[in-house]
Amino acid sequence: MLMTSEEAFAHVRPHLSPARYTHTLGVHEVSITLAKRYGADVQKCELAAILHDICKEHDVRDMRQTVTEVLKEPHWAQYGDELLHAPCGAHYVQHHLGICDNDILAAIKSHTTGRAHMSIVEKVVFVADYIEPNRAFPGVEKARLLAEESLDSACLYALQQTMTFLLQKEVPIHPETVCAYHAFLKRKGRSTIE
């Protein structure tokens, strides 16, 4: 049996600053709305949303060590420290909180990068993290409107915007993000250059 949302909030609260906790509340709220709209498992979406940033403010050196030595996925450290909390969070939730549900773990791990063939729970959390009410950046309103019409369209837009932002900063883009972008383009029927 999965933990309740109250139990998850109790676990996550000590790990987060007030601002990060407010963000988490927003992701939680939007995840419930999207899960209901698109027929996803509400409890799984809730738990993944609550726990998605549990390691966000952990020590970067510790997270680098975790992805390299424990997870044996050193490539995460090559694409910016901002991504490390996702695989570390999934690991933490599994090994410290005993959550072994693959949908929840995958949603936590992929919420920063996306990935090809995302489950509906992953899509819900990915989009909710992007559009939660406290987010204010160019394009977020369009993303919110797209999320009301199509979860896949919202994912594709978020991936496009993220990649554009990273390209403008001239920083590496995680391969999972590129693969996710291609997968959503293919679903949309635009897999070739015309």
TrEMBL record:
Signal sequence range: none
Q: What class of enzyme is it?
A: hydrolase
| Alphabetical list of InterPro entries matching this protein | Diverse_Catalytic_Enzymes, HD/PDEase_dom, HD_domain, HDIG_dom, YqeK
TM region(s), chain numbering? none
User: According to the UniProt entry, what is the EC number of this protein?
Assistant: 3.6.1.41
**Keywords, A to Z?**
Hydrolase, Iron, Metal-binding, Nucleotide-binding
| NCBIfam families, per the entry | bis(5'-nucleosyl)-tetraphosphatase (symmetrical) YqeK (TIGR00488), HDIG (TIGR00277)
Q: What is this protein called?
A: bis(5'-nucleosyl)-tetraphosphatase (symmetrical)
